[in-house]
Protein: FAD-dependent oxidoreductase
Amino acid sequence: MGALGLAPSAEASAKAAFEPPEPSHFSLTGRSAKKVVILGAGVAGLATAYELGKAGYDCTILEALDRVGGRNWTIRGGDRLTELDGSTQVARFREGVYMNAGPARLAQWMVTMDYCRELGVDLEVFTNSNAQAYIYHQSMPAPVRWRTAKADVYGYVSELLSRATDAGALDAALTTQDKERLIAFLSGFGSVGNRASGFAYTGGSRRGYSVDPGAGEQTGTPLGPVPSLSEVLSSGVGQRFSFEFGYDQAMLMFQPVGGMDAIPRAFAAKIGRQRIRLGSVVTKITDWADGVEVEYRDGRGRTQKIRADLCVAAMPPHILARTPHNLGAEVQAALSTPNVTNSGKIGLEYRRRWWEIDEDIYGGITSTDLDLATIWYPSHGYGAARGLVVGYYNFGAQADAYAALKHADRERRAVEQGMRIHGAKYRDELVSSVSVAWKLQPHIEGAWVGWPSRQGAYQLLNSPAGHVYFAGDWLSHMIAWQSGALESARKVVTELHQRTLSTA
Ligand code: PHE
Structure:
């Protein structure tokens, strides 16, 4: 029945197909795997080496930093962070406490999930939206829980729409039956009263309680007072809700157990650490008629050269644009085209998990119109002694404002602002902190990029320049996601392998 299309079936995965290169592909063609130099051990570079390695390509990765992963970076106690101006922080986090400074959430449909399965990276739920977390706007007298904001917005919208429908205001759009169906939907959606009550929204248990229901006669005290429609609209809380409707942000989301860097670590282990040259800064890329030569400065400051048949440049475009090469003026202009976005995070380590103990918040995100933008509660380690809250995760101008400060001032500003939501314990129970300003991270210098257009430069770099291919999230339609880097790597691997199979 299924084969005939007569039985219903669930929607299939919408992921792009990918066939990894295999050694057997060479047996019929008489051709052999080539030597490939990969620039950058970020997620795109690692995935490229991993996939090509399956067919026996001889890959070498040059990585400027002393770790793999690029922006996939988990900071733990003892880790040292140095910014472009040389200022340094050393994380003092206790055992088990960490911050994912870059990527921190995976959507189920992303290819990243498949790599976690293949690489044996354990996953756990990452709580991206939590009814128990807050929305805080400076115009509001106090933060409001997401559940309360939703109850009020959905409630009043349902009341208005039910009334309008019932009064015939939508008769041109709705049949009599549809009107009844819409009213039935709104009754549950907004938890509003019946027709006789004028479909009134009067609050209720969805808003939460000031005293929870309990045993015996304890019915609970519903949270009040219910704000007026006008107050709810002027608070602007409803404008926050669409965040979780995004294809890339909807629950459930996931994270690797123990830190996001489990992904690059697993890749590096499969590739073989000996193929990855850390502390190697690319200084020149030369495309020859028969291959490519890359010059780099090694960890001891010596200039080295490596020759290969092909190259995959998986570095940020703005760093490549500063690297001498002979790939031509058009490539140079294209590499300089995307606009770099900044982003920042601060990890606040607390001696007590007050968000769980005092506020019943287990994971999730508080959204604000403060320049800290969002506060993230950890989706792991519930009930442990300590924990880490992300005190800001912001972009653009807000991130620039924090980047301009020394770490101690970033901490002071983040804590001062966060106290408006969580009170004095937000300052008093803090034990250590670390902040990352992505535009100040050596060899990365940005969080992600944006293209003014997907014509021209973007298209040019999505095809090879001589023997040099380009890969990264910046060459995908999933910028600022590891899945973008992984899909880009797969595309380049496929094209590079096809070329190898079809040319002598
Ligand atoms: N992937 C990043 C994040 O989830 C950046 C991003 C934010 C991308 C919002 C798209 C939408 O935070």
About this structure: The pocket of phenylalanine is lined by residues 105, 248, 480-481 (CB under 6 Å).
